[in-house]
User: What shape does this take?
Amino acid sequence: MAALLKGIPVLPVDNMGETLGFYAKLGFTETFRDDADKPGYVGMKRDDVVIHLARVDGGLARTVGEQTMARFIVDDVDGLYAEYRKHEGVIHPNGKLQDKPWGTREFAVLDTTGVCITFYKVNAD
Assistant: This one.
């Protein structure tokens, strides 16, 4: 049976310039874009995590974005939380660092389109 190797979430964007700035604060760097002047599709990467950003026109981006979530496993969730807390408005208002009953230590951010991204580490027993 074939094995799945990696996933790349494609996240909706309403304002590409703002969103690129937001992900730069998170330490992501741009790897490609479809158009130099007015990008509609952009790839970004931090360490082994890759995301793609897709502009959604017509006011639909926020509606889709507020229903979109992604979760990323990290090796030092406390360190990443401290890094992201330095930037105002990055941490989700209800997503402060905490231990969850399902065995993870996690926090969440909200991007400029309303996408919720959770960063977590599985707690050791």
